[in-house]
Design goal:
With 345 residues, this protein is α/β, with parallel strands linked by helices. The protein has helices at 26-39, 60-68, 84-96, 103-117, 121-128, 132-140, 147-154, 160-167, 172-185, 189-201, 204-211, 217-224, 229-256, 259-278, 284-300, 309-325, 330-342, and strands at residues 3-9, 13-14, 45-50, 53-58, 73-79. Among the domains are: 3-83, Conserved hypothetical protein from pyrococcus furiosus pfu- 392566-001, ParB domain (Alpha-Beta Complex); 257-342, no CATH class. It contains 17 helices and 5 strands. The protein has a 5-stranded mixed sheet with strand order 1-5-3-4-2. The termini are far apart.
């Protein structure tokens, strides 16, 4: 097999039909096209001759970028193979070690290499330079019963390790609920493992409360220590009540906010943010905290009808702290403080 670098017309090249990667980020392709126009192609693509055209072995992104840049030719290394299977294996191996290939695409590539050479899992791992365990985990993504998890890996919502942990539940409806929680909260692998481990050992009613996001993992572990089911149900009921109060706060705030009140609140917020940005403070962390605090305080005004005395006391404490730290904007803070103190519940 001999190799040489040649210039090939871009329109005489075709992508490999067996390419594992089927989608390309248009934005990144345009960036690459601009880079190639400015600095040239850093690494030639690899091709092999097929009748009256060349087929890409590796470098499809670079070829697509050349097309976007409207360049007529591209540098390529022509590889000549005695066996077609050798060309295919080379192409698959090149794809497998690309950093931008997601784990599902890697799994499909591994499966193709395994099929092409009829390899056992151990020999496949040796061939591609990966551990047996990692290869096995990747190939498991292609199992039919992993479909709901594989899709999430493919979209980049979770990684293979997440999928493996969730699959350990061995109950598809529960797996789907856990997957939703992991995606929504952006749980790490460690946190996902904690969640799944707790789900496996807690009583049914506690498990349901976790999946319905009524209680947290930590709360679930504490409630599970109650030996009496009636006590557990009561504890879960109390947490449900807190969730209802939380929803009512938001609902009440939405109902209470007329268009005029919203406009006034927005004006105050904008004015306060202007003041804060004008502050000259050495401690940037303090500045950021003040910025965050005033936003919370301004929005909290909407919740006055349903906050209790303890919450009100905390809110007033925050305002006092704000007044002490912020030389400007204190008038606004005093106005909000007065409104909270004098509000007739």
């Amino acid at each position: 097999m001999e190799n040489k670098i040649i210039e090939i017309p871009v329109d005489k090249i075709r992508p490999n039909p067996n390419q594992s990667r089927k989608s390309f980020d248009e934005g990144k392709l345009k960036e690459l096209a601009e880079s190639i126009k400015a600095s040239g192609l850093a690494v030639p693509i690899q091709v092999t001759k097929k009748n009256d055209y060349w087929e890409i072995i590796s470098g499809e992104r670079r070829w697509r970028a050349h097309k976007i840049a409207r360049l007529k030719t591209i540098q390529a290394i022509e590889k000549k193979y005695v066996k077609d299977s050798s060309r295919r294996i080379d192409s698959l191996m090149e794809n497998l070690h690309r950093v931008d290939l997601n784990e599902v695409e890697k799994a499909k590539t591994l499966k193709e290499i395994q099929k092409e050479d009829d390899l056992s899992l151990t020999l496949l791992a040796q061939r591609v330079g990966l551990s047996d365990t990692y290869v096995r985990h990747l190939l498991n993504l292609l199992n039919p019963d992993m479909k709901h998890l594989t899709e999430a890996v493919k979209k980049g919502e979770i990684i293979e390790h997440h999928a493996r942990i969730i699959k350990g539940i061995q109950d598809e409806p529960t797996e789907k609920k856990v997957l939703d929680i992991v995606k929504e909260k952006g749980l790490s692998v460690t946190k996902t493992e904690e969640l799944v481990n707790v789900l496996k050992k807690v009583p049914k009613e506690v498990k349901t409360a976790i999946l319905n996001e009524v209680i947290s993992v930590e709360q679930a572990e504490n409630i599970s220590k109650l030996n009496d089911k009636e006590k557990r149900d009561k504890a879960i009921g109390e947490f449900k009540s807190l969730k209802v109060v939380e929803k009512n706060i938001v609902k009440n705030a939405k109902n209470r906010d007329s268009a005029k009140e919203k406009r006034e609140l927005q004006k105050k917020l904008e004015k306060a943010e202007t003041w804060i940005k004008g502050l000259k403070m050495e401690n940037i962390a303090t500045l950021r905290q003040l910025e965050k605090t005033i936003k919370v305080l301004l929005m909290a005004v909407s919740f006055i009808p349903v906050i209790d005395e303890k919450q009100k006391e905390k809110l007033l404490g925050e305002l006092t702290l704000f007044i002490e730290k912020c030389e400007r904007g204190s008038q606004l803070a005093e106005e909000i403080k007065e409104k909270i103190e004098n509000y007739d519940e």
